[in-house]
DNA sequence: GGTTCGCATCAAGGCGTCGTCAGGAAGTTC
DNA sequence: GAACTTCCTGACGACGCCTTGATGCGAACC
């Protein structure tokens, strides 16, 4: 979540309320910083004050809409309906006038997040040269045909695929798939990596996508 | 577009304004008629007054959200924030208090329609080789004849059909159909999936559309 | 060259999960 | 109040997954 406002007390109040409800909060005090923070932080919703010191709020909306469909909720002291129309038509999702009730804002945030969660869902597919992993549907296909994985096999592959390109430590894999008590059972990893390779790799004994980093962990190479 | 309000002058004003802007407008004067009109007319947005004569507006929202993600914009004379929170959390997309500015409402309508145009892609009728599920009408047909399902059976099938192609976790099914306290009663799932298969699958013991993913959940394959 | 350690592979047993059938309790309809 | 539907619960067999042990291989180190 990204909060953009130039009034420190508003930012502070929002940060406290939102953090308490489990959101992780980024903040920005002007439009330029807002666009940068949005690009780097990938927030799942943006709360934007229209009265910023550097650029017009409408331009910030347009700058965001150029590359993302993240929900934007506008906060503004202007009650004139022309402002609302302008902001909404620029691409904002909602418009709340100051002073606002915190519980109403939170409800509108929930509504916005819920909508975008529904819209999402389709595009979580990781592809390699020999197979594809659909993280949303929990499906793996190889040469077009679906490959059946057991829960443990899928648990491993999911973590590796979500961290594709990065090294994942043995301990992390063991703890997330088997639980904190199994952090040392590295034998499990060998057995299940072998099974995954047998099911997915063209040459299971010379893996190209499920790579061992000796002594450290494993890496998924798309 | 569906306009639901019991005050004729509001309905009339909206109809004129919206028709002039190219929307085709359906109207309803109470909640029962609204649900029927929504099911039959498949509007792409609903404008809903909360103060209806027959049922509570929140129930209308819930009734719609049971089978459709159509944008719902609530109109209400109540300014209390508790009302707003309740309506938004029930599934409304926006909340506008009367009296309202027509251009603001129109801007909010445009925003809602724009969002849902991006999201789209969801169909109310799911077809398989051996049966069809009509999510809007809550009906299942097999070889042209309607198959009677119990409420629990329908609850299961609805979730699976809405997530067709995707794996749905056992826990999610149990929590959404039976409630949060039943997240571990996996036996229920076995019993009811067997019943659904007996009613819908050509070979209930070799299911093709209601597939078990052992240890993880179930999947609807269209 | 021998030893040790980490990794890969195979095989087998135990046990948890799944599907199925059936019976009883609670609620609904006429 | 009887007949019916729906939901919950228990029992049981079958299958498949997880675990575990044994063995082989290669690299690093002494």
Detailed description of the structure:
The structure is a homodimer. In chain A, about 45% of the residues lie in helices and about 20% in strands. With about 220 residues, chain A is α/β, with parallel strands linked by helices. Chain A has a 5-stranded parallel sheet, sandwiched between helices. The relative contact order of chain A is 0.09. The first copy, chain A, binds a DNA duplex (30 and 30 nucleotides) through helix 8.
In short:
2 copies of one chain form a homodimer. The first copy, chain A, is built from 8 helices and 12 strands. The first copy, chain A, is of the alpha/beta class.
Strand and helix layout:
The structure is a homodimer of 222-residue chains.
Chain A: E1 2-4, H1 8-20, E2 26-28, H2 31-41, E3 46-49, H3 57-65, E4 72-76, H4 81-90, E5 94-97, H5 102-119, E6 125-127, E7 132-134, E8 139-142, E9 145-147, H6 151-162, E10 167-169, H7 170-177, H8 186-200, E11 210-213, E12 217-220
Chain A binds a DNA duplex (30 and 30 nucleotides) through residues 150-152, 185-194, 197-198, 205, 212, 214-215.
Question: What descriptors fit this protein?
Answer:
homodimer, 222 residues, alpha/beta, four-stranded antiparallel sheet, elongated, DNA-binding
């Amino acid at each position: 979540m990204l909060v953009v406002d130039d009034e420190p007390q508003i930012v502070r109040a929002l940060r406290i309320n939102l953090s308490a409800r489990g959101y992780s909060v980024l903040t920005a005090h002007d439009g330029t910083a807002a666009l940068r923070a949005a690009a780097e932080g990938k927030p799942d919703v943006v709360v934007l004050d229209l009265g910023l010191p550097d650029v017009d709020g409408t331009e910030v909306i347009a700058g965001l809409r150029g590359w993302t469909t993240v929900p934007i909720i506008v906060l503004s002291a202007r009650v004139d309906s022309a402002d609302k129309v302008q902001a909404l038509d620029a691409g904002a999702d909602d418009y709340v006038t100051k002073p606002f009730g915190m519980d109403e804002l939170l409800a509108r945030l929930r509504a916005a997040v819920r909508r975008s969660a529904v819209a999402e869902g389709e595009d979580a597919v990781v592809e390699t040269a020999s197979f594809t992993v659909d993280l949303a549907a929990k499906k793996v296909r190889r040469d077009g045909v679906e490959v059946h994985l057991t829960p443990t096999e899928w648990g491993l592959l999911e973590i590796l695929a979500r961290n594709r390109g990065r090294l994942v430590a043995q301990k992390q894999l063991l703890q997330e798939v088997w639980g904190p008590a199994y952090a040392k059972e590295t034998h499990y990893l060998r057995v299940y990596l072998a099974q995954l390779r047998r099911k997915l790799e063209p040459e299971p004994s010379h893996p190209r996508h499920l790579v061992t980093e000796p002594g450290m962990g494993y890496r998924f190479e798309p």
